Amino acid sequence: MPKRSRISLNVDGLNRILFIRLHSLRDERASPDLIDRLGKVDKPWTYDALFDFRRYEAELSGDYLSFLTHKWRALTEGRDRDRRMALVSPCPVLHLQLRELRGAMPDRGIAVFESFDEGLDWLKTGAALAA
Q1: 97 partner at 20 to 30 Å CA-CA among 46, 66, 68, 103?
Q2: Hey, how many other C-beta atoms are within 10 angstroms of the C-beta on 112?
Q3: Residue 53 and residue 45: Cα distance in Å, rounded?
Q4: 3-state SS class at 87
Q5: Thinking of the domain 6-125, which architecture would CATH place it in?
Q6: How would you classify the pairing of strands 48-52 and 84-88?
Q7: What's the gap between Cα 26 and its chain centre?
Q8: Rg value, the chain, Cα
Q9: Which of 13, 11, 36 is nearest to 21 (CA)?
Q10: From first to last of its 131 residues, what are the pLDDT tens digits of the chain?
């Protein structure tokens, strides 16, 4: 039996942060996915985002990351300029894959962190972009 996508989404309206926790993503383009869920948030491009991959259990292909990035750009139509995205993962391989997103989304400040608290602090303080 194929694994279902497991994604949780919480909205912090006060701090304008979306918290997305990913446990697994099914690489199936015909089914609802992460971007479909984000599209249900009123003006998701007005939020910063923290993507939490600490409990991620599947392989994340570069093709699927490109697919999600393309869908996000179609949803936001450039309205997410200057918003920030913290990506959290302790896995070195996933860390490298996530860093590649910075080139695919040049109008968004994107940084990769090993801990949730580091990512959240970066979003809340507006600190300079991490390496």
Answers
A1: 46
A2: 24
A3: 20
A4: strand
A5: 2-Layer Sandwich (3.30)
A6: parallel
A7: 15
A8: 14
A9: 11
A10: 445 557 789 999 999 999 998 876 655 554 456 777 888 899 998 999 998 988 776 666 777 777 778 888 888 888 888 899 898 988 777 777 777 777 777 778 888 899 999 999 999 987 766 44
Nearest to 52 by CA among 128, 2, 123: 123
Q: 């490109």: which residue's tokens?
A: 66
Cα separation, 87 vs 51, whole angstroms:
5
- Helix, strand or coil for residue 129? coil
For residue 1, what pLDDT is reported? 42
Within 8 A by CB and 6+ apart from 126, the residues are: 84
Burial class (CB in 10 A: 0-12, 13-18, 19+), 73: middle
Most distant CA pair in the chain, distance: 45
